[in-house]
Amino acid sequence: MNKTLQPPHRVDAFRWEGQGYQPFVSHRGWLVALMNWEPRFDPANVGKVERHNRTDEIFVLTRGRGVLFIDSDDTIHAIDMQPGVIYNVTSGTWHGVLGTEDTSWLIVESSDTNAENSDYRQLNEKELNTLRWLFPAWLKG
What we know:
Blueprint: E1 20-27, E2 30-36, E3 48-52, E4 57-63, E5 66-72, E6 75-80, E7 86-89, E8 94-99, E9 104-110, E10 118-122, H1 125-134, H2 137-140
Antiparallel strand pairs: 1-2, 2-9, 3-10, 4-7, 4-9, 5-6, 5-8
């Protein structure tokens, strides 16, 4: 017997061409969003990091070039992101991203992630110098 899809069965498609973060799907406690480059992701503006205290945050580079950096136990790490690879930043990890103007990321995180259960801070000068030294060649140019 052939079955046809009846509501609530459907496929929703989403695209985001604007700058910044745009949530699209929230289901069973998880949120899926697209995040496109905006000036805060420019290497010239590097410095702010965040951590989410109740959730991991997943980044998938879908377009452009991106760097995911983390501050872990007073050590900075910079990851030259590869398209299609899932990068899971675990709960409580200080992190940030940088990218080229054509960069876009897919983001998956808890739907209740907000400023009240996240922390934000500026990297100090030593951390900034270390991070800049770790930038991939394409970002240093």
